[in-house]
Design a protein that fits this description.
The protein is an alpha/beta fold. It contains 26 helices and 14 strands. The protein folds into four domains: 60 residues, Arc Repressor Mutant, subunit A (Orthogonal Bundle); 94 residues, Glutaredoxin, CATH 3.40.30.10; 220 residues, Rossmann fold, CATH 3.40.50.11540; 76 residues, Ubiquitin-like (UB roll) (Roll). It binds flavin mononucleotide and iron/sulfur cluster. The site of iron/sulfur cluster (SF4) has 14 residues, from α20 and α22.
Length: 603
């Protein structure tokens, strides 16, 4: 017990007993203890001078925190549709059978639990899983699962499992200016310093770079608004939460181009912070990528030694900027910038009411610029090569290149970088897709395109994207694709606002009701009408982008792949949402009858 207290004390001391570090403290404590007993939460609450209810509320928000024992081996299968297409469900059933545990449960001896989790960002090398929230295993197959069951039964520590299982490939298939041109560390900062802060900002505006996280807001303008906001200090945040299913390009940028990411953040700190040094830098790294934490910390250490971070960067007196990494704990909504800031502050990741926007009042009420990983990479290249150079690539409204995470039914899944304006069909040809029925661009909250639309182009003015490119051939049931996405949104809704909390669940129930129709179930055209109505309602009334876009895949697939839904209809009119015959089973049991006469007539 005193050892446990010492360990807790060390973690608390490392974070200066700051309540804003609560999420990080909980993560590190749980790494040591496996789960978070109430007594421990009480000790943390006392030390951080927070109400216990607050600490428990934070633990309850994040899926990777556990207030109950979860087993020494906690196995989480990635549950994106692409993992399922590669057989993840059968593999999980096999593992559960071998270990004698049901999905979502802890084994009787308390040793192991097996469950699903949202996309782990390894769709180019799935099926994938996470063990103990730290170790990723890629390219699962039946022999791996069989051996894994043996290793778990023998209580072999995870780091001693076969090393090839943990290999994560970058799979860069097409490189352009971001993936193909590594910058020498410090090059962009040097050019920026020589140019001056205002000129650097002007260069960003000239480039017309738009954010790569999805919304496409002009980066130069965002930096300028942050610079001009009232207040003494500034914060630069890198959004590396990458939770959109099917998106994994930031994983590769952080693996291969971490220097450019940190360099871009430093250029931002210089441009927005000239009158406000020191500037604070924060990277929000998704919990699923925590295996990248140590390599990224090593890059940060080296950059400090190279005087590219810390006090007086590259000798410029007063230009003080450093970067800390905050690791998330399994909540997709934390990718939304205001939820991300709440999480950085050690709270539940509930999106804030806006205005004020983060550029005015962000992290700890300081003006904060939040940008995507790829946006910072682009900013570093723009600092070196100039805004006009960047603006000369792509289209007038969508300048530069875009990196795509390609997965699904194609011969060469991986990372592809193209100038904006590239045809969808071109990407399909390059990745070796055949007989393609549909492409989901930008993940579940993006757009689903049918074969008639493969001539359209990737651009903010045509098909915008945050980076996912999931390919579905003609063997796939687009209804099942949409149903997987519906489950994802219901699972990830933070529950703050009723239209999203209830709406996503109602969508799932309708989709499940339709799905059961193929087994003689209860779908009707009325159910499809209800889905349309839910879409309208949620789009208009939810608090953040998650709820607003949760029905996008339904709307697209109903409009473009209607037969996939009609296959699930039993009636053109109305079918009740419950199975009356099944509901009568208790009455049958009580009367001791189960003969055909005790059942409702089957149509
Ligand atoms: C539910 C939700 C999830 C999001 N997830 C991410 C994410 O994982 N990464 C990201 O960069 N932006 C994400 N965004 C967009 C951010 O809110 C924000 O617009 C972005 O980080 C700004 O960076 P940019 O201007 O460089 O695009 C998400 C938005 C919503 C509504
Ligand atoms: S829309 Fe959904 S995710 Fe967003 S705040 Fe409301 S409940 Fe939370």
């Amino acid at each position: 017990m005193s050892g446990e207290l010492d360990a807790l004390d060390q973690v608390l001391s490392r974070y200066g007993r700051s309540p804003h570090a609560l999420v990080q403290i909980l993560r590190e404590v749980q790494l040591q203890t496996g789960w978070l007993p109430r007594a421990q939460l009480g000790a943390i609450a006392r030390e951080l001078k927070l109400p216990l209810a607050h600490v428990e509320g934070v633990v309850g928000f994040y899926r990777f925190f556990h207030a109950r024992p979860v087993g020494r081996y906690r196995v989480l299968f990635s549950d994106n549709i692409t993992d399922r297409m590669l057989g993840s469900e059968a593999l999980m059933a096999d593992l559960c059978a071998r270990l004698g545990v049901a999905p979502g449960q802890v084994s009787a001896d308390g040793g192991v639990s097996v469950d699903r989790t949202s996309c782990t960002g390894l769709c180019d090398q799935g099926p994938a899983l996470l063990v103990n929230h730290q170790h990723v295993i890629t390219r699962l197959d039946a022999p791996r699962v069989a051996q894994m069951a043996e290793l778990i039964r023998a209580e072999t520590p995870v780091p001693a499992w076969p090393q090839p299982w943990f290999a994560v490939d970058d799979n860069i298939r097409r490189a352009d200016v971001l993936l193909g041109m590594a910058l020498p560390p410090g090059a962009a900062i040097a050019v920026g310093l020589a140019r001056g802060a205002q000129a650097q900002l002007d260069e960003m505006k000239r480039s017309n770079l738009r954010g790569r996280g999805g919304a496409g807001f002009a980066t130069g303008l965002k930096w300028e608004m942050c610079r001009d906001a009232p207040g003494e200090s500034r914060v630069v945040v890198c959004n590396a939460d990458e939770g959109e299913p099917g998106t994994f390009k930031d994983r590769v940028l952080l693996t291969r181009h971490a220097d450019e990411v940190f360099e871009g953040m430093t250029v931002a700190a210089f441009a927005i912070g000239a009158a406000h040094w020191p500037v604070q830098g924060l990277v929000y790294l998704r919990g699923e990528y925590s295996y990248l934490l140590e390599p990224l910390q090593a890059v940060l250490r080296r950059r400090r030694e190279q005087h590219l971070l810390g006090a007086a960067i590259q000798g410029r007196a007063g230009f003080d900027f450093d970067i800390a990494i905050h690791v998330g704990a399994g909540a997709y909504v934390c990718g939304e910038e205001s939820a991300l800031i709440e999480s950085l502050e050690g709270k539940r990741g509930t999106p804030r009411i806006r205005p004020p926007f983060p550029v005015e009042r962000g992290y700890l009420d300081q003006p904060t610029t939040v940008n995507n990983v790829e946006t910072y990479c682009a900013a570093a290249q723009i600092a070196v090569h100039g805004g006009a150079w960047w603006a000369g690539i792509g289209t007038r409204k969508s300048t530069g290149t875009k990196i795509h995470s390609v997965s699904g039914d194609c011969e060469r899944p991986g990372i592809y970088e193209y100038p904006f304006g590239t045809r969808i069909g071109r990407i399909l040809e390059d990745c070796g897709a055949h007989d393609t029925q549909a492409v989901q661009v930008g993940g579940p909250s993006g757009v689903c395109l049918s074969a008639f639309e493969f001539g359209r182009r990737i651009a903010f003015e045509d098909v915008p994207t945050a980076g996912a490119f999931m390919v579905f051939d003609r063997t796939r049931d687009m209804f099942e694709v949409a149903r997987n996405f519906a489950h994802f949104f219901a699972h990830e809704s933070c529950g703050f606002c009723t239209p999203c909390r209830v709406g996503t669940e109602l969508v799932v129930r309708r989709m499940d009701k339709l799905a059961s129709a193929s087994a003689g179930g209860r779908g009707s055209a009325h159910d499809i009408q209800v889905l349309f109505e839910l879409d309208r309602l949620m789009h208009a009334t939810t608090h953040c982008g998650l709820g607003a876009s949760a029905c996008n895949p339904l709307r697209d697939t109903i409009a473009k792949f209607r037969p996939a839904y009609e296959r699930h209809l039993r009636s053109l009119h109305f079918e009740p949402g419950f199975d009356l015959d099944a509901e009568l089973s208790i009455a049958r049991h009580m009367t001791g009858r189960d003969d055909p006469g005790a059942h409702l007539e089957k149509r």
